[in-house]
Amino acid sequence: MTNWHALIREQIAKERSAAVELLQEWVREPSVQGEERSIQEKIAARLHAMGMDVDMWVMEGEELLRHPYFVSPRTDFSASPNVVGVWKGTGGGRSLILNGHVDVVPAGDPAQWTHDPFSGEIVDGKLYGRGSTDMKGGNLSSLLAIQVLKALGVRLKGDVIFQSVVEEESGGAGTLATILRGYKADAALIPEPTNMKIFPKQQGSMWFRLQVKGRSAHGGTRYEGVSAIEKSMQVVYAIAKLEKERNERITDPLYAKLPIPIPINIGVIEGGKWPSSVADLVKLEGRMGVAPGEQMEDAKREMAEALADLAKQDPWFAEHPVELEWFGARWVPGDVGEDHPLMEILQQQFLQVKGERAVVEASPWGTDGGLLTALADTPAIIVGPGTTAIAHYPNESVELDAVFQCAEIFALTMMEWCGVEEA
Amino acid sequence: MTNWHALIREQIAKERSAAVELLQEWVREPSVQGEERSIQEKIAARLHAMGMDVDMWVMEGEELLRHPYFVSPRTDFSASPNVVGVWKGTGGGRSLILNGHVDVVPAGDPAQWTHDPFSGEIVDGKLYGRGSTDMKGGNLSSLLAIQVLKALGVRLKGDVIFQSVVEEESGGAGTLATILRGYKADAALIPEPTNMKIFPKQQGSMWFRLQVKGRSAHGGTRYEGVSAIEKSMQVVYAIAKLEKERNERITDPLYAKLPIPIPINIGVIEGGKWPSSVADLVKLEGRMGVAPGEQMEDAKREMAEALADLAKQDPWFAEHPVELEWFGARWVPGDVGEDHPLMEILQQQFLQVKGERAVVEASPWGTDGGLLTALADTPAIIVGPGTTAIAHYPNESVELDAVFQCAEIFALTMMEWCGVEEA
User: Fold this and answer.
1) Residue A408 annotated to the active site
2) Which residues of chain A make contact with B274, given a CB cutoff of 8 A?
3) B170/B212: higher pLDDT
4) What is the similarity comment for this entry (chains A, B) (predicted)?
5) How many Cβ atoms from other residues are within 10 Å of residue A295's Cβ?
6) pLDDT mean over B154-168
7) Among A211, A414, B170, B308, which residue's beta carbon has the most beta carbons within 10 A?
8) Region for B163 from its dihedrals, namely left if φ exceeds 0, alpha if ψ lies in -120 to 50, beta otherwise
9) How far apart are CA B286 and CA B327, in angstroms?
């Protein structure tokens, strides 16, 4: 009997050096929002060279732009094509989507980086650069898994659909467009940076903006006014209370290790214009976590109720209610049962490759997996190299060994999940 | 015996129509910071025509710019001359400064004004426009008082020094420059808008900026960070506590009617950059009231101590102390004894003109009077037409009757204070 695991490991070792160069090439592409065409064309060409059916298109049209799950600060994606490559199976097997995004968040202040943010420098086994962890490293794991199986002459029964999408960092319009284009599968893997923890459940999230009102006055007679800054402190407290109540309801053991499973974060505060005037308006912006399985509309209603309740403790809020607006990014929560067959296969292969049991948790942030699960009937599981702790920060990096271990686990998982046509 | 009061009232009535036109002309000059030359040249010409010794100059030089009380966002005043006119007395009397500023705060959004902010429209006995109350109306009272006495052939024994200064709204560099140029007197009147209350004491004030630190993290794992927004709530609370302690010490009956005699106002809050990130920095800007007779350095020290005390309740602040900076505007507190002879004279003339006793209080805001009292040995009393409630706001206006009553009171007060050389 063929020892596929040994062959896969050996093949990865052979391809490692070229694969590292490929990842460097990807990281050197500054594929921030609106700048994804160059890397996508390279990926499309590569998938084509690997013998896959390649679909590269610019998403557009009313069906997308008016879709209730469409979220993006823009409507013109001409510089940001989506790419999908299909490795057609021989038939009779389960299909698998390997989804990953190529858009990266801005590099921020280059002075805070030790190396150039788009250098792809390698130091002590880590490859540095914006997007290395989030999530070009993971994308390489997926691509390499396919490449290795093809090199070894493996013929899968089920289809493998490699998706290189845009717009994940802005709420998932790229993956939404693949769904509207008809792509779906029996399951999906998304190698977002989980530090190789397996996340069958993902927290959703959405952004809110609050306007807290006051009444202006001269600072020397501040008692003649009402400070929107003081009132906003009551609002921050009310939101902390809501966060506590919502989290006390979370009993899922997958969340046991998280101090606050579904946080509500107030990230921006801005109000008042003059040191010696009483502020008449404070704007707060934040992110509300949504539990796996929770309807986003229910979470929105709870927020609106918590703000309305402020009127009970302070008549000011009865006459000047806090204005609530949902804006900007939104990620649908995802929820795949822990007993899902892909979960079982994934954990077996993890154990085989790493020699230890995988940690199974629920993710504290949203991914495109929520859309795949909710809209495409494609249960999505999140597992990949890299850690979120350094995503979006200066000196983002990914550990190369983890990238190749993930490729090994993915290749074995694909064989088990999709099935292999014997020669 | 001549009934001077009747003569003065009669003369004011004669000059009223021309004086209203003059006030309109002044209000039509948009003398915001950096745009004061035009009105100052007109005032200088008028003082000259009235037979006064006129001194118009552009303040400059190291003595001014390096003076510990110099505060201004600019150092070039070439578009903003100061004007002083001296009516020399016959000798042997007490001298008097009539100080007022011509700089006005910006008009703000014109859409919030019923009339053009620089129209000088008159409706129902009120003259509308930016600067009408603060304080061109009061300046007219001073000028008219001199004009009327001169018209009546009154010869005062003491000098009268009419000061039309710039930069009051930015902290008093204009009045500071008159002091450095050598102008001083036995007392001063400043017709800021007190609604004709007499303020022998004035609250000083100064601006502060605080930087409250946090540690960034992704909003989905906000417990890995430290929210500068939450920390800033502790800072706001600590400042409220300091305000309470400072005000409990104020026992002066002149402050009895003010709910908070020397408020600390936090007017601006700004922090965080992204709804789904934990804010790592919040900036707070505010105004600290300084009690009459209090040293500004003592008030600064109390603020620094209150912020340092935060470390006792929360170790975060021990490692990340709140940064305190004093910036921008500053007004020195003023403190003239209620038994000062000018107080007595002023109240007598008020009673004579208005038929009721004047209200004596302490001002909730600073004026240039603090500088005159502290640096020029010139006790300054604040009393004038108009109300601060509408100063700095849209539809600022001044009641014309109050302007002319103030002129009447000032003319009588000048005769009593400076003394009259009998013909």
Assistant:
1) no
2) 267-268
3) B212
4) Belongs to the peptidase M20A family.
5) 12
6) 97
7) A414
8) beta
9) 10
All domains in chain A, ordered by first residue: 4-202+333-418 (3.40.630.10), 205-330 (3.30.70.360)
Q: Which two tokens stand for residue B204?
A: 């000083």
Q: Tell whether the model's pLDDT for residue A1 goes beyond 80.
A: no
If DSSP codes are grouped into helix, strand and coil, which group holds residue A253? helix
* Cβ atoms of residues A238 and A307 within 8 Å: yes
Which sign does the torsion angle of CA A97, A102, A108, A112 carry? Answer: positive
Alpha carbons A156 and A95: distance in angstroms, whole number = 9
- Residues of B annotated as catalytic (active site), given as ranges: 103, 168
Percent of chain A with pLDDT over 70: 100
Mutation target among B170, B244, B274 for the A interface, most CBs of A within 10 A: B274
**Which residues, in sequence order, are bridge partners of residue A100?**
A164
Contacts of A97 (CB under 8 A, 6+ apart): A161, A163, A183, A184, A185, A187, A188, A189, A372, A378, A380
Question: What are the tens digits of pLDDT across the range A277-322?
Answer: 999 999 999 999 999 989 999 999 999 999 999 999 999 999 999 9
Q: By C-alpha distance, which of A69, A137, A7 is closest to A366?
A: A69
Tokens coding B41: 């040249």
Contact A265 B285 (CB under 8 A): no
**Using one digit for the tens of pLDDT, what is the confidence trace for B391-422?**
888 899 999 999 999 999 999 999 999 999 98
User: B362: Cβ–Cβ under 8 A, 6 or more apart, which residues?
Assistant: B199, B200, B201, B202, B203, B252, B254, B255, B258, B261, B292
Closest-approach residue (CA) in chain A for B202: A220
Residue A221: list chain B partners with CB under 8 A: 258, 263, 364-365, 388
The tokens for B273 are: 């950059």
Peptide bond preceding A415 in cis form (omega within 30 of 0): no
Give the model's pLDDT for residue A394.
87
- Given an 8 Å threshold on Cβ–Cβ distance, is B286 in contact with A388? no
Binning pLDDT at 50, 70 and 90, where does residue B257 land? confident
Amino acid type, B75 = T
Judged against a pLDDT cut of 90, whether residue B163 lies above it is answered with yes
Determine contact, residues A103/A168, Cβ cutoff 8 Å. Answer: yes
Calculate the CA dihedral of residues A296, A301, A306, A310 and round it to 10 degrees.
140
pLDDT at A423 over 80: no
pLDDT band at A388; cut points 50, 70, 90: confident
Residues B324-343 have a mean pLDDT of 92
Name the band, by pLDDT with cuts 50, 70 and 90, for residue B271.
very high
Angle at B324 between CA B318 and CA B328, to 5 degrees: 175
Across the interface, do B229 and A277 touch by the CB < 8 Å criterion?
no
Mean pLDDT confidence for A338-358: 97
Report the mean per-residue pLDDT for chain A: 95
Read off the amino acid at residue B392: H
Find which of A109, A207, A211, A218 to mutate to test the B interface (most B CBs within 10 Å of its CB): A218
Which sign does the torsion angle of CA A126, A131, A134, A140 carry?
negative
Tell me what the pLDDT averaged over chain B comes to: 95
Taking CB atoms and an 8 Å limit, are B275 and A221 in contact across chains? no
The pLDDT score that the predictor gives to residue B11 is: 98
State mean pLDDT over B304-327.
97
For residue A330, what are the β-bridge partners? A206
Rg (CA), chain B: 24
Nearest Cβ partner of A219 from B230, B233, B263? B263
**Are A287 and B365 in contact (CB < 8 Å)?**
no
| Residue A129, pLDDT above cutoff 90 | yes
Tens of pLDDT along B352-405? 999 999 999 998 888 999 999 999 999 999 999 999 878 888 899 999 999 999
CB A270 within 8 A of CB B269: yes
- Chain A residues inside the 8 Å CB shell of B391: 218
